[in-house]
Amino acid sequence: MKLSDFDFDLPDTLIATRPVTPRSSARLLVADGDTLHDGSVQDLLSWLRPGDRLVLNDTKVIPARLSGLRHRDSAQGPVQAKIEVTLLEPRANGCWSALLKPLKKIKVGEDVIFSDTLSATLDGVEDGQGILRFNLTGEDFDAALAEAGAMPLPPYIAAKRPADAQDKTDYQTVWAKNAGAVAAPTASLHFDAPLLAGLADKGVTFTHVTLHVGAGTFLPVKVEDVTTHKMHAEWGHVSAEAAAEIAATKAAGGRVIPVGTTALRLIESAGRSGQIEPWEGETDIFIYPGFTFHVADALMTNFHLPKSTLLMLVSALMGQDRMRRVYDHAVRDGYRFFSYGDASLLIPETA
């Protein structure tokens, strides 16, 4: 498989920079085997059956993007300059790994002031990332970050506009619970309380799992032989209760349908033995055509970047030729792409 096998032309006008409202009014392209159906997310009430189980990623996006002033004393007097920071993942003792711009100009030991209450010191540099030691920890850090930080919008949105107060609502699922993600599980952004209630009334059940989505989800694939690509690792957790619920649904003949590629990657990480089991740790599972699925029977997901690992994942589920037809139809019919865009429901023939 070559990287070029997963390329397609995408007009810039189809990249969504704001979601539609209400959330469930977004468009939904259903690929039921080889048949395509145009509709809206509300149509999940028709497509899902009693006994189906949706698997939902309950990670919570933190306002991980910070603007600050780096400060150090020199023989010529105090030195101050602007710096942009994107938090990646927590370390021990109140430290975080982070992307810093400009990284080359900041020196180990320099302080960075983000607000009257939040600051950090650069403890070191590892693999092109800064290690920042913050002045606060625990709930004090969370409160200060909520005040000073902005939502870490994907690069293709951030290039067009800055994050604002509306994104703190829009770029968060209605069931977000466990803080730690620096990117949203975006297929889940289409759900609102009325839709969830309607699905529950129909007999659809829900299982919550946690995968903290990292900034690496936006990293491009740089190798032509896609099988040699190394995935970024992300922390996830499937509880014993969640594994039992999923196993019971499969035993009863219901369909297990993850909402989003993050939920799918997590439950397949927990199901490599052939059946779902409780699981916790870091997963760098890479799903591309030829992958054997043990847990997921279908998938709800947004429309993905050309040449991305996420496009490879949906091609593994549905087949490359079928996904080319899905994306050709989506582009031709004006579906909105990426994090704030429209959704697809992908149902293989076996489901």
Give structural notes.
Helix 8 crosses helix 9. The protein is globular. The chain has 351 residues and is α+β, with helices and mostly antiparallel strands. The chain has a 6-stranded antiparallel barrel. Strands 14-3-12-13-15 form a 5-stranded mixed sheet. It has helices at 44-47, 138-148, 155-158, 167-170, 193-202, 240-251, 261-269, 309-318, 320-332; strands at residues 27-32, 35-40, 53-57, 59-61, 65-74, 77-90, 95-101, 111-113, 119-126, 129-134, 178-181, 205-211, 234-238, 256-258, 279-283, 299-302, 343-347. A hairpin with a 2-residue loop joins strand 5 (65-74) and strand 6 (77-90).
Mean of pLDDT: 94
Amount of beta strand? 25-35%
The residue ranges in which pLDDT falls below 50 over 5 or more consecutive positions are: none
- Strand element count: 17
Query: Can you summarize the main beta sheet?
Result: 6 strands, antiparallel, barrel
Q: What Rg, in angstroms, do the CA atoms define?
A: 21 Å
| Distance between the first and last residues' Cα | 26 Å
The DSSP helix count reads 9
